[in-house]
Write a structure and sequence with these properties.
The complex is a heterodimer. Chain A has 14 helices and nine strands. By secondary structure, chain A is of the alpha/beta class. Chain B has two domains: 160 residues, Rossmann fold; 132 residues, N-(1-d-carboxylethyl)-l-norvaline Dehydrogenase, domain 2, CATH 1.10.1040. Chain B is elongated and about 65 Å long. Chains A and B meet through helix 12 and helix 13 of A and helix 12 and helix 13 of B.
């Protein structure tokens, strides 16, 4: 049985994800703020709509992939939002990275209209979105997850149902903590090597074979050594995600000192006009801290 | 010309501030969520109102002193809020500590109704409020500030207009950044003494006379030494303000590594049940990292043996 699908938000991530869903043979209706973003989908046979409500009215499952918490609130609950159009029993799967608390609030609100919400943030970047190899962490009702799982499998490889509403976003926060703090650690290690006059590339190579191995050391470590900070994952987005992390820590009352510190270096990156660089450019911030003013 | 004044929020800070204005001879209307808190003001001749809107209809200048951004928004723009009763030309002076962005938003919404909104957070605590010696940091329209400057000198000693709308809250955020970091530093210093087997009371006495002396050290140092955490300043307020600092830094694209760590210490203090303890209780978080006892339940599930 084919399911009618909707997709709202067709940026760097949303576009390839929607295209992968269409390759599964599903009818697709789409909406994006900028009409030109819808073009590649229309070319592939998708129906374009002028509002999220119009998308949701025609879809059994509507996927949302936008930037931040207020965007998701607008797209789902705002005027012309999904909640206005969606039928009872429809599912909205939000794949954006937003606040877990806001997710629970939105899910509770649309539940009163008989609409199910899944939070399903992703990890894996543009490459993962294009190749259909994303990691997808899902929160919401288990039955809703089972209905959508075959669709998630068209977009991702590692699909994990974490728990009740908001749990997917919590997992994503955990992911961003590990990423930020590991980038920080790799950057500090390579800077220490350089400050000692030791070949940092050799150090990285040695570490890759040992206990300090990580994907971050491998990929981001190479970026740091080559000073190649093309994203990847933009610092401005990582900053947004770390604000969500620190807001949760504040609300819950839990100390996350290392994450808080790494977030400050990402702030400095964004404040230096380098928010479009990959977040591994934390390396540059740390380098600047210990650089005598006459250098560079 | 006599101005008719209003005061909303008569807690630990608001009550003595309002009393100082009444004693200076200004006619005063008051509103508080809990009716009992207005009694000391009514006894001094203030008129109690049953809503912020009702109060606004009678006043030329309204002072607000509530807890957080959403409280100020509710008082100003909510049902029966100031905006519903306000006359054109009203000046609202908000003494609460809220995010600069929230202050700017309120100022621009109220400006559309002909109401001037000044952000005017204070520093100096309950003692400063009682003695009328607060430091007041103001952001907003200069002409409105000029009109109310003489009133502010009834409640504060240092009255400074920092700049346009939001600038007062930025100054307060900078103030709180310095305070939470000083608290963190003092807590670590005294814990270092204790952990090294040295009498922290003696160390505190030595610090007091040297380059590490500070008002925070005077007010909070001995509480840390004696583990007496009756407030003073409730830690939940510094916890709230530390998050405002982190949000300001993120918005400005600035690294505030020290404040970021201090904010985490306050987060932990909340989890330990310290919300209504004095902020000097941050020392318990520093101490707890090394302690084997008093660990919370979910951590004790981990076994390292």
């Amino acid at each position: 049985m084919t399911t009618s699908l909707g997709f709202v938000g067709l940026g760097i991530m949303g576009r390839p994800m929607a295209l992968n869903l269409m390759k599964g043979g599903h009818a697709m209706v789409v909406h994006a703020r900028r009409p030109e973003s819808m073009k590649p989908l229309a070319d592939a046979g998708a129906v374009t709509c002028t509002s999220p409500a119009e998308v949701a009215a025609q879809a059994d499952v509507t996927f949302v992939m936008v930037s931040d918490t207020p965007d998701v609130e607008q797209v789902i609950l705002g005027p012309g939002g999904c909640a206005e159009g969606a039928r009872r029993g429809a599912i909205i799967a939000d794949m954006s990275t937003i606040s877990p608390a806001a997710t629970r609030r939105i899910a509770a609100e649309i539940a009163t209209k008989g609409i199910e919400m899944l939070d399903a943030p992703v990890s894996g970047g543009e490459v993962g979105a294009t190749n259909g190899t994303l990691s997808i962490m899902v929160g919401g009702k288990a039955e809703a997850f089972e209905r959508v799982r075959p669709l998630f499998e068209l977009m991702g490889k590692n699909i994990v149902y974490i728990g009740a509403s908001g749990a997917g976003q919590v997992a994503k926060s955990c992911n961003q903590i590990v990423a930020a703090v590991t980038i920080e650690a790799v950057a500090e290690a390579l800077l220490l090597a350089r400050a000692n006059g030791v070949d940092a590339a050799k150090v990285r190579e040695a570490l890759l074979g040992g206990f300090a191995y990580s994907r971050v050391l491998e990929l981001h470590g190479r970026r740091m050594l080559e000073a190649d900070f093309k994203p990847g994952f933009k610092a401005a987005l990582h900053q947004k995600d770390m604000r969500i992390v620190l807001q949760s820590a504040h609300e819950l009352g839990i100390a996350l000192p290392a994450a808080a510190l790494a977030a400050q270096h990402i702030n400095a990156l964004v404040g230096s006009g380098e928010g479009e660089l990959d977040s591994s450019a934390i390396y540059k911030v740390l380098g600047r801290m210990s650089q005598a003013p006459s250098e560079g | 010309m006599t101005l008719t004044l209003g005061f909303i929020g008569l807690g630990v800070m608001g009550r003595p501030m309002a009393l100082n204005l009444v004693r200076a001879g200004h006619p005063m209307h008051v509103y508080a969520r809990r009716a009992s808190t207005v009694t000391p003001l009514v006894e001094q001749g203030a008129v109690a109102c049953d809503s912020p809107a009702g109060l606004a209809a009678r006043c030329d200048v309204i002072f607000t002193m509530v807890t957080a951004g959403p409280d100020v928004e509710a008082v100003a723009l909510g049902v029966d809020g100031i905006a519903e009763g306000a006359r054109r030309g009203l000046i609202v002076v908000d003494h609460s500590t809220i995010p600069p962005a929230a202050a700017r938003r309120l100022a621009s919404i109220l400006a559309e109704r002909g109401v001037d909104f000044l952000d005017a957070p204070v520093s100096g605590g309950e003692t400063g409020a009682i003695n009328g010696t607060l430091s007041i940091m103001i952001g907003g329209c200069e002409s409105a500030f000029r009109r109310i400057e003489p009133l502010l000198s009834c409640v504060g000693k240092t009255v400074l207009r920092i700049g346009e709308s939001g600038a007062g809250q930025v100054a307060k955020a900078a103030n709180q950044l310095a305070i939470v970091l000083t608290l963190q530093g003092l807590a670590e210093a005294l814990t270092l003494a204790r952990a090294s087997g040295v009498d922290p009371a003696k160390v505190l006495g030595a610090l007091r006379g040297g380059a590490a002396a500070s008002r925070i050290l005077d007010a909070m140092g001995s509480k840390m030494v004696t583990h007496d955490y009756r407030p003073g300043v409730e830690a939940r307020l510094h916890h709230k303000d530390a998050q405002i600092v982190l949000e300001c830094a993120a918005a400005a694209g600035l690294a505030v590594p020290g404040a970021a760590v201090a904010a985490q210490t306050f987060n932990a203090l909340m989890a330990r049940g310290g919300a209504r303890q004095d902020s000097s209780a941050v020392v318990t978080v520093v101490e707890a990292m090394r302690a084997r006892e008093n660990q919370c339940a979910w951590l004790s599930l981990c076994s390292y043996d």
